[in-house]
User: Fold this.
Amino acid sequence: MRYRYRNFSELEETIFRSAKKLFVQHSYSSITQDMLSQDSGANKSAITWHFRGKEKLLEHFIHELLEFRENLLERIRKDVDDNILSFATELVTFHRLCNSNAIAKELFAVAYNSISMLSTIREEFIYLKQHYWKNIIPELDDEAYKNKEIIASNLELALLRFSETPEYAFEDRIRLVLDTYLELYLPDEEHRQTVITKALEYDYVQEAQTMFAALADE
Amino acid sequence: MLPLPMNNKSAERRKLPMQENINKKLNAMQPRKRAILCTSAKLFSQKNFNAVSNKMIGQENGLPPGSVTYYFHTKEDIILDLYDILSDYQNEMTEKLYEETKDGLLTLAIKIAAQVTLCEENTNALFLYRAFYALPAVYESIKSTASKNTYKLMKNDMPDWTEKDFKIAENVTSSIEMSALTSFATSYFTLDDKISQILHSVMHIYKVPKDKQAEIMIKLKKYDCSAIGTKMFDRFIKLFDGDRQNE
Assistant:
């Protein structure tokens, strides 16, 4: 993990550990300070003193969430050779997970909606893309990745905010978003369409589900 | 002090668009509710959205403490009502632009470019728009009104798209528009780059061919988006000035 500089005291560590558990097992809006204090055994005012509230705790937790996405990507890269395809598959898998898991969806939607957490997420993805895609797309420089990430990260928010109804199917939506997302980096129509078709075929949702649940007792 | 109901004479004199319609909407509200809404619009244009408190709005109106909370539970409820009026106003503006340009896609491009430019130059507008896009309830209404609006603009150019298709596309395009509000332009990534990148993605969703995209970008350069955006925002705020004039 590249960005985690944590210098927690023992008490802070306890609070953070139970916060992690709550974030993964309960929906974000339903978490209260009472629950936190009950689970960790810390005083409510101690929680306020050290973290102010759940927003601050989520700001720490976002690094773990990003690590989860990176691990998911690594897992997919074991089976899939192509760097761009594995990235697209990770995107599809992650959003399918969020579509079936309301807790994850809300948690990530909150993170993507907050400006400070969004910039952390962007940094992470800019780094990953610069690292993995350099050889495949040589015409993009580092600056271009930064600029394109502004739109790319918000496209993910579009999916996180969308709830499935019988009339508006999730699979149609993810196709449209994936197409727009990849178009930023791959203007070549043919290449893009093969990547999209292949990415939608892979199914790692079950594994992603277990990985997400495992975040609680890390 | 309670403001008098708005009077249409002053509206005619200033000839603001939509004034009558909006007066109708405002006059249907309870007087105090209307006064609070008008003051908050004014305050949001002068101060950062996050810095305006319910208490401030009440003090500005000379209302007893707690009355703002009585009429609107939170600032979010005020925003919802404000957006209701802004969307009416924006519809009117785009129709006017359409008469001028006679090109649905170009009108859409100007609208987006003007909004991005306005938010880049005016921090208060930026925070207000960010609040619009960040709140789930307002976001839903942005999506539904904008998709109807876009459908009206583009249905001649794209006859094979149904209203449902536009709704699906709007889900994604509204997020792209929102992305402009999350970071400032820099000297490496200028406002023009930002606008062209956003418009490129939006037009890609509407499946506009590459040569048509370039054509639109050239046409867009003839319009002063900064002036259009600023004028739109100033006029929007002025719509709420009605009862101040009568006092």
Observations:
- Chain A is about 75% helix and 0% strand.
- Chain A touches chain B at residues 113, 115, 118-119, 143, 146-148, 150-151, 153-155, 157-158, 161-162, 167-168, 172-173, 176-177, 179-180, 183-184 (CB under 8 Å).
- Residues 80 and 126 of chain A are 21 Å apart (CA to CA).
- The mean pLDDT of chain A is 90.
